[in-house]
Amino acid sequence: MNPKTTEWSKLDFSYRYVPYRFHAYWKDGAWNSGKLVTENKLLIDEGAVCLHYGQEIFEGMKAQRSEDGRIWLFRPEENARRFQDSARRMLMPEIPEELFIRGIKETILANKEYVPPYGTGASLYIRPFMLGVGENLGVRPAPEFIFIVFVTPVGPYFKEGFKPISLKVETYYDRAAAHGVGAAKTGGNYAASLLPLKQAREEGFNDVVYLDSVEHKYFEESGVANIFFVLKNGTIATPKSDAILNSITRRSLVRIARDDFGFTVEERQISVAEIKDFVEAGACGTAAVVTPIGSLGYKGEIHKFYADGKEPGPITRKLYEHLTALQIGDVEDTRGWLKEVV
Ligand code: PLP
Ligand code: COI
Fold first, then answer.
1. Tens digit of each residue's pLDDT (9 = 90 or more) over 145-168
2. Among residues 286, 285, 327, which one has the least CA distance to residue 119?
3. Which ligand sits nearest to residue 222's alpha carbon?
4. Which of 27, 42, 98, 204 is the most buried (most CB within 10 A)?
5. Would residue 211 count as lying in a domain?
6. How many whole angstroms from 4 Cα to the centroid of ligand 1?
7. Shortest-distance Cα residue to atom 4 of ligand 1
8. Residue 312 scores a pLDDT above 90
9. CA distances to 44, 89, 99, 227, 287 from 144, in Å
């Protein structure tokens, strides 16, 4: 892509080649210091554990510009921490926060002209990931690991942008098991979601909401985002579960809603039987930002929320507007969540 001719506000969520990425290597118990490279293809062993047994983890982050053109990350140390949590669960070496953040910042600065301009709604998506590589055949941890950061300019994940989507509450397939790897950001969770996603799309839904794998009774999360609901009494409720990804966007929204706007926010098990009490619903995540859920399909019945599922609800809108303004420096960052990329 040519950053001089790109129509930033028209970008979708897909991969576009930009010149630089960061590679670091772990061998014999230590990470090297890493470096920027231009090659976007990898040469790894055909027996590499990541290819056969899924020893792989990743993160998703965004860099955005404020009105004065400076570039900002949103709570990157939380992604560094979650990457370490995922690494421990998948028996991979932890990346020191310093290396994680340096790799990200070097990659962004090397590709600076690909960070979309302020006010276009686009951002530079950042994908740090780690692969278990090296010769292998048996099921055991990889002998070597590669840490990579690539970046690519993106628009909204759900192509409609801030418009209500329709999700299918999945009653047969599970995304993650109770004591499985649902809380780790690892490829297998997403591979498991491909078939239910395909079926949901064929039925006319945008994506899937999963239920707990033990009783199929409690909401968990969507395929690429956590979820929240606004109840009739104005309370905001969001599922609590050890099998979902610990979304940084969701945790940020909880604090904004509670402390800045004075909402009551409940983080608890939410039963599907409560669906009739929802007046708004939303999905939240780095890629999804805050996406209104206009309707949920459950056991063949469509449950519509605010404005018959056609418009974003006022509380969902308020959260979306505040979060997006905060992330580009348009409202004051009272918590030190923004970190400048310099
Ligand atoms: N849940 C899943 C399955 C995800 O892939 C993501 C995306 O990162 C999220 C939730 C949202 O997490 P975060 O807000 O930290 O991006
Ligand atoms: C993100 O929101 O950054 C994610 O990682 C979701 C991704 C699967 C698109």
1. 999 999 999 999 988 789 999 999
2. 327
3. 1
4. 27
5. yes
6. 31
7. 224
8. yes
9. 11, 17, 17, 36, 30
- Size of the chain, expressed as the number of residues it contains: 342
Residue 188 exposed, middle or buried by CB count within 10 Å (0-12, 13-18, 19+): middle
CA–CA separation, 303 and 315 (whole Å): 18
209 is written with which tokens? 């909401």
Tokens representing residue 4 in the block: 């001089």
CATH number at residue 298: 3.20.10.10
Position in ligand 2 atom list of the atom nearest CA 157: 9
Q: What is the DSSP letter of 116?
A: P
State the angle between helix axes of 97-110 and 76-89 in degrees (0 to 180), rounded to the nearest 10.
120
Nearest partner of 293 among 304, 183, 302, judged by Cα: 304
Overall number of domains in the chain: 2
Whole-angstrom distance, CA of residue 88 vs CA of residue 133: 17
Q: How many angstroms separate the alpha carbon of residue 287 from the centre of ligand 2?
A: 5
Closest ligand 2 atom, residue 62 Cα: 3
pLDDT of residue 100: 98
Helix 76-89, helix 248-255: angle, nearest 10:
130
Query: How far, in Å, from the CA of 127 to the mean position of ligand 2?
Result: 9
Host domain of residue 308: 165-327
Establish if 293 belongs to a structural domain.
yes
Residue that finishes a domain, picked among 154, 174, 202: 154
List, for residues 196-234, the tens digit of each pLDDT value: 999 999 999 999 999 999 999 999 999 999 999 999 999
Q: Are 129 and 82 in contact (CB under 8 A)?
A: no
Kindly state whether residue 159 falls inside one of the protein's structural domains.
Answer: no
For the whole model, what pTM was predicted? 0.97
Atom of ligand 1 nearest to the CA of 61: 16
